[in-house]
Design brief:
Layout lengths: L21 H6 L2 E2 L2 E6 L6 H12 L8 E6 H8 L8 H15 L3 H32 L11 E6 L4 H11 L3 E7 L2 H11 L6 H9 L9 H4 L5 E4 L5 H16 L8 H13 L10 E5 L5 E6 L34 H19 L8 H11 L14 H17 L3 E6 L3 H10 L3 E6 L6 H4 L4 E2 L8 E5 L2 E2 L4 H5 L24 E2 L3 H14 L3
Parallel strand pairs: 2-4, 2-5, 3-4, 5-6, 9-10, 10-12, 11-12
Antiparallel strand pairs: 1-14, 6-13, 7-8, 7-9
Length: 519
């Protein structure tokens, strides 16, 4: 029997020997399309930032043909029939009702559907225009059009919305956390609020409502790929900040990290050393000039100095006395809080203040709903900030005074007093920490108001998120110069290359789910 020749015939995806060119075929599916999701606390100029992105992307520096702004508040108005609603509070409640009925990610599903429809509509229009042009020229075939799209989602408010968007778009999605100082946010809300709205109530609800389907900006914002600080009202200021992000994300310039970005990346990297059961936290300390003095992370101290850590590959865990390796992996802080809760309940029963039959119910209330749940004093771990201060003090203690501390999570009140005593001038954080009483217990020394220069200022970090540091600041795979030593001038293209092969399939699953439910 003659042997069948399974080699592919020459085509656009075959090399000169007729072999299928895998790399070339996959390379042709790489898309310049991007999805930008904005997230920011109430009162931040998100709409203005979205318009700035659109204006710059359609300019000559980036040449994106179609930039589509998707305002999720319009979906809320449409589905809850609130077209002329002026009350911000009512819009928040309407969004919560949609999440409660259809799932926390429902607004992200609406965004995916709109992205799909806008792409199909724009693609058809571009192909029709090109077909007409080619017919005039007498061309025999119509090549497939590659259109440079950008979809801007204004804005996401819940962590489940972000999770769904990341699961569909992967590295095509870029999340930008936008924020402004609180005084600027209040001034903007004064102009935008409805007659029934109370500004401080709006800010509190937006930050993190207790209900699961409420707005949870405080949880969502720290997951951004880039933190964009807008602390001036001028267009030039806003454009400058947005342009830096676009240059990094689209690889159009050679850029290096700021001192603050480098310091926060060091803190983020240090956090990966931690084996704490509660959370991984990292910190770094710099001098006033930006020199990194030390890093630290949260973990259990060992005798004669330092923290437990993995010394070498294959090290025996027998000498590792961290919580994960003791008592079945029970957190010491939680263990002590259980003992205290039980002791309180037993005392209440002994004194005749509650019935023994209600013991379990009272225990749950004390353990889960009282301030006892916020206690952190019984952890065996040295906190990241303290570890960094100790390390810096052993080497460059004199440079700490007037320096800066970068930490992945807002400092707790226990660390706050050490930060103040060490002479640190500014603290930058990524994630909030609701349990912290730092500003309450040390209001004389610590402030979140950036204008109070006579106190230690605790401020949100801005710039490239540590998770994107290597991606944004690594040299281009093709190098930075040609064979003659001239710097490459590159077309704007996302540095995180993504293929379009799977994305329409994932989008269709989301759209079909909405259609099947009639929403």
């Amino acid at each position: 029997m003659a042997q069948t020749d399974f080699r592919l015939r020459p085509s656009a995806n075959n090399d000169r020997n007729g072999h299928f060119d895998d790399v070339g075929a996959i390379g042709k599916t790489i898309t310049p399309e991007i999805v930008i999701a904005l997230c920011g606390p109430m009162g931040t100029p998100l709409h203005d930032v979205a318009k700035t992105f659109k204006e710059l992307l359609q300019g000559t520096d980036y040449n994106y043909e179609m930039v589509n702004i998707i305002r999720l508040s319009e979906d809320i108005r449409h589905h809850k029939k609130l077209i002329d609603e002026k009350s911000i509070c009512r819009l928040i409640e309407a969004g919560n009702e949609l999440r409660a009925k259809h799932g926390n990610e429902i607004l992200a599903r609406f965004a995916v559907r709109r992205i799909t429809l806008e792409r199909e509509k724009a693609q058809a229009a571009f192909e029709a225009a090109q077909a007409a042009e080619l017919v005039e020229d007498g061309a025999a075939t119509i090549p497939k059009v590659t259109v440079r799209y950008c979809h801007i989602i204004d804005s996401i408010k819940h962590i489940d919305e972000l999770k769904l968007l990341r699961s569909v778009y992967g590295d095509m999605l870029q999340v930008v956390g936008v924020y402004s100082p609180i005084e600027m946010r209040i001034a903007r809300l004064e102009k935008a609020k409805g007659p029934e709205d109370q500004i401080h109530d709006l800010i509190d609800r937006d930050s993190g409502e207790e209900i699961d389907h409420g707005q949870r900006v405080e949880d969502t914002f720290p997951q951004a790929d880039f933190f964009l600080r807008v602390d001036k009202t001028t267009d030039t200021h806003r454009k400058g900040r947005v342009k830096r992000f676009l240059d990094l994300m689209l690889g159009t310039v050679i850029a290096t990290p700021t001192l603050n970005e480098r310091a926060m990346y060091a803190a983020f990297s240090a956090a990966r050393n931690s084996a704490c059961l509660s959370r991984q936290v990292g910190a770094s300390i710099t001098s006033g000039e930006g020199e990194i003095l030390a890093t630290g992370w949260n973990d259990v101290p060992k005798a004669f100095g330092g923290l437990y850590q993995t010394e070498t590959y294959g090290s025996s865990p027998d000498e590792d006395r961290r919580c994960w390796n003791l008592d079945g992996g029970l957190c010491s802080n939680d263990q002590e809080k259980r003992l205290i809760s039980n002791a309180i309940v037993d005392l209440l029963i002994k004194e005749g203040l509650i019935e023994k039959a209600k013991r379990d119910d009272v225990y749950k209330i004390i353990r889960k709903k009282s301030q006892l749940k916020s206690l952190i004093e019984f952890s065996r771990a040295v906190h990241a900030e303290m570890h960094a201060l100790l390390s810096a003090g052993a080497t460059d203690g004199g440079k700490i005074r007037g320096g800066k501390l970068f930490v992945t999570t807002y400092p707790c009140h226990s660390c706050a007093r050490h930060i103040v005593a060490a002479g640190v001038k500014e603290v930058y954080f990524l994630e909030p920490y609701r349990k912290s009483l730092a500003t309450k217990l040390h209001e004389d020394a610590i402030t979140e108001n950036e204008n109070e220069l006579e106190k230690v200022r605790v401020m949100p970090f801005d710039g490239v998120a540590p998770a994107r540091f290597l991606r944004f600041f690594s040299a281009h795979p093709k190098g930075r110069k040609d064979s003659d030593g001239n710097m490459h001038t590159r077309e704007a293209h996302p540095v995180a290359s993504v293929t379009m092969e799977a994305i329409p399939t994932l989008e269709s699953l989301i759209v079909q789910s909405l259609d099947s439910r009639g929403i």
